[in-house]
Design goal:
- The structure holds two protein chains of two kinds.
- Chain A has two domains: 101 residues, Alpha-Beta Plaits (2-Layer Sandwich), CATH 3.30.70; 66 residues, no CATH class.
- Helices cover 44% and strands 13% of the residues of chain A.
- Chain A has five helices and four strands.
- The longest helix of chain B has 34 residues.
- Chain B has a single domain, classed as Up-down Bundle (Formate dehydrogenase/DMSO reductase fold), CATH 1.20.1630.10.
- Chain B is mainly α.
- In chain B, α3 packs across α15, α7 crosses α8 and α12 crosses α13.
- Chain B starts with 5 loop residues before the first helix and ends in a 7-residue tail after the last helix.
- Helices cover 72% and strands 0% of the residues of chain B.
- The chains are: A alpha+beta, B mainly alpha.
- Chains A and B meet through β2, α2, α3 and α4 of A and α7, α9 and α17 of B.
Chain lengths: 184, 444
């Protein structure tokens, strides 16, 4: 924002729908009209919503596998290096590198790293923590966590959102509001 | 739960956090008193050394290690049960899953204290961690005690993340619905989760993997604890059955404690609509099944001791049932193997006071069962010149009681700060019910 004018936040048009099914249907219709930055907000997962939103195959299992492999090889390597190479330790004449007795800890590090990678991967993929989102400016939007089904359409900064309002009304939104993103 | 409206679910859950009755203060008072008593006794142990306990040659592991094993055991019915209920798509999970997961986290946090108390110079506990220290020495990774350190730290970390992750949608809900000083707390903890489809999709994908990882982890943790004993050559410990035996005992004691906590929650917060007699009936059946498994394990242990023909082992088992600790042994048999048989009758299963009595017996019985197998082996090992009995000292018993207070205190604080039922999941099942009834208008 190098221009002299005050920077403006994006405009969000929010529409409420009576049911999850209506929301999914509306979402599909709105996307077909060419609105790209569309998001649904619902108190529980909507099935059939992802293809309406055009989301791709989840990478979560791959993240989990990457964590598991890191934990497995990392755990084993740690023990081999510490007990066998860095400070070879003779306990009762057993070989310094005794992989069989390392298996329990390898298992634990595998599980630990899998869980940590899922958890932190989840936060990164969800773009959390997200301290501010314009949709929370709207008081009625509070219902999105209990029984409201909302569709949000993001518009370019400075837009008055009229077009999106009309579109949402035409696909059956019971209530439509426009909120401006605050940049403070 | 289909007859309960969404608003009611939310209201009742929020009430568990905001309404505080005299029962709550009484329970918290008892918990804090026990913590103070245990803390004082531990402070004496720190200042004067482990000489204040009853531990001495030959019994160097006693009540403190017993309490450690006991609490690790109790933790198993939390996350494990919650994860299993998740995979079986059980409607029970929304009501009891959260408290069970919290129970796991707090029991491990309690259990973890006891090895630290037991090492005497507790401030040196970090010696068990692999870090580049001034002694330039790593720990011995072949030792089951080191396995245990890894198992328990992994277990507590994973259980906490599992609890937190499952709670994320509820925290987002509360951040919008609750007023007062709580709102900033939930806003920060909910991390800005706004229920977008992208978020739900990742959540729905990640949660089952997490739950799937938790199940083998829980099983591995108590197996590793059992190897602390079974990897030695001590008579009565050196046995291949120990890992499954410990896991079964863990689930057994965990269910008993879960019954006690749930009945307390239900009574204290009038959650009769959510925690129903059906829940208790199912827990009672599970308790009965695990009791039968335990009886089988006890019998197998005795059979193997005499079948194998090791004199030292035969002596340990003969002495366990007839010697100094025989009253403890028969008490354990009555509370763990005989008393739960009453649950064969549906009247006993559906009569809450009976179920609570049996659960208390099982909880106490499982503590003494661990005490028994730890102490009798050490007191009666290979060399008869090295035999000797052990009785916990008063201060040692206070430290153990302090753990019960500590666990209860953490749990009570938790239910004040966080929803003890999964509101979001209840809504999901509620919406599913509504949608099945009226496909077009899925909320009333």
């Amino acid at each position: 924002m190098s221009t002299g004018t005050a920077p403006q936040g994006r405009t969000y048009v929010l529409g409420q729908f009576p049911t999850g099914a209506a929301l999914v249907k509306a979402c599909r219709q709105v996307r077909e009209k060419g609105f790209t930055d569309v998001d649904t907000h619902s108190p529980y997962p909507l099935h059939g919503g992802d293809e309406a939103l055009g989301l791709k195959r989840s990478v979560v299992p791959k993240v989990a596998l990457a964590g598991a492999l890191t934990g497995m090889f990392g755990g084993m390597a740690m023990m081999v290096w510490m007990n066998g190479i860095n400070w070879p330790m003779n306990v009762g004449g057993r070989p310094p590198i005794s992989p069989l007795s390392y298996i329990p800890i390898t298992f634990e590090t595998t599980v630990l790293l899998t869980s940590l990678s899922i958890f932190f991967g989840l936060l990164i993929m969800m773009r959390l923590p997200q301290p501010y989102h314009a949709v929370f400016e709207l008081e009625a939007f509070r219902s999105a966590v209990t029984d409201g089904f909302w569709l949000s359409v993001a518009q370019a900064p400075g837009s008055d959102g009229k077009e999106a309002v009309r579109e949402l009304e035409s696909v059956g939104a019971t209530q439509v509001s426009v909120v401006k993103e605050s940049l403070e | 739960m289909s007859e309960v409206s969404l608003a009611q679910i939310e209201k009742d859950t929020v009430a568990t956090m905001s309404e505080t009755t005299w029962r709550y203060w009484l329970a918290l008072g008892i918990a804090l008193s026990l913590v103070a008593l245990g803390g004082w006794a531990w402070s004496v142990a720190l200042r004067q050394g482990l000489g204040i306990t009853g531990l001495n040659e030959p019994v160097m592991w006693g009540a403190l290690i017993t309490t450690f094993v006991f609490f690790i055991g109790v933790s198993h019915s939390g996350t494990l049960v919650s994860a299993i209920l998740f995979f079986t798509r059980s409607p029970l999970r929304a009501a009891i899953g959260r408290s069970a997961e919290a129970m796991t986290v707090f029991t491990i946090m309690t259990a973890g204290l006891y090895p630290i108390v037991h090492i005497g110079r507790s401030w040196l506990f970090f010696f068990v961690l692999p870090y580049p220290n001034q002694r330039q020495l790593w720990m011995n990774f072949r030792s089951p005690l080191t396995w245990d350190v890894f198992a328990i730290t992994s277990y507590v970390t994973v259980s906490m993340l599992f609890l937190y992750m499952g709670m994320l949608p509820d925290l987002a809900l509360l951040a919008r619905q609750v007023k007062s000083w709580r709102r900033p707390l939930y806003r920060v903890l909910s991390l800005g989760f706004s229920g977008t489809d992208g978020e739900w999709r990742i959540f729905e994908k990640a949660y089952p993997i997490f739950a799937g990882v938790v199940i083998p982890l829980a099983v591995s943790v108590h197996s590793v604890v059992s190897w602390d004993f079974a990897m030695t050559v001590m008579p009565g410990w050196h046995s291949a059955i120990f890992a499954p035996y410990f896991v079964a005992g863990a689930i057994f004691s965990g269910i008993a404690v879960a019954v006690l906590l749930l009945s307390g929650l239900r009574r204290g917060y009038h959650l009769e609509r959510y925690i129903t007699p059906k829940h208790f009936d199912m827990l009672a059946k599970l308790l009965l099944a695990m009791s039968l498994v335990m009886t089988f394990v006890y019998a197998t242990e005795f059979f193997m001791a005499f079948y194998r023909g090791s004199k030292a082992e035969m002596e340990v088992f003969r002495w366990r049932a007839t010697g100094t600790y025989a009253p403890v042994f028969w008490g354990v048999v009555i509370s763990n193997s005989v008393a739960p048989l009453a649950l064969f009758w549906s009247r006993a299963r559906n009569h809450l006071p009976t179920l609570i009595t049996i659960s208390v017996l099982v909880t106490v019985g499982m503590w003494f069962e661990r005490f028994l197998f730890i102490v009798t082996t050490l007191a009666r090992s290979f060399v008869s010149q090295n035999w000797g009995n052990y009785i916990p000292s008063w201060k040692e018993s206070f430290i153990c009681l302090g753990g019960f207070g500590w666990f209860l205190m953490l749990f009570l604080i938790f239910i004040k700060l966080f929803p003890c039922m999964a509101i979001s999941e209840s809504m999901q099942s509620q919406h599913a019910v509504d949608a099945a009834v009226t496909p077009e208008a899925s909320h009333a």
